[in-house]
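input
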Amino acid sequence: MFYWLLLAKNNQVLDNFFPFKNRIIVMRLTSKGRYAVTAMLDLALHSGQDPIALSDISARQGISLSYLEQLFSKLRRNKLVKSIRGPGGGYQLSRHVSDISVAIVIEAVDESIDSTRCSEKGNCQDGQVCLTHHLWLDLSKNISDFLNSVSLLDLMNKPEVKRAAFRQDSLPEIINSDLLTLD
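output
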């Protein structure tokens, strides 16, 4: 299980509940959502005219091929990617990178951004709303708004993402080159 740390600064909704300026809020994000975003970002970074094989994404990101196949089946059903069959086949994005938000990717693989105990139904305590229901509901909305505001293009333009992608792309070349000797 992975945890998502959200640093909230001067957030009006949360300021009503927590009177301090900087706070860290922990929200659970399972590997399904995390891996889907990672794989889609990898696809976006490597997309050109040729389709990208899932085996290439698997090798670069350390995600099992069978798990990627499950994720990409859902991404394809939600029209975020298209598959190209045959030799040299693989996957391509079906939308421009600026039109794919992190939230859309997470939702496409059936991941919830909900932080309430009751799945936002309001029946958290004996069929009624619990004391903190609206707090968690507001938190879910803020997280959803944030993830909707971040596109794959936004992530691609981050210097730290570019550095990580360069490192991942260079690693196989270094391993297969004369630069690495095992004497």
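quick obs: Residues 1-26, 179-183 have pLDDT under 50 and may be disordered.
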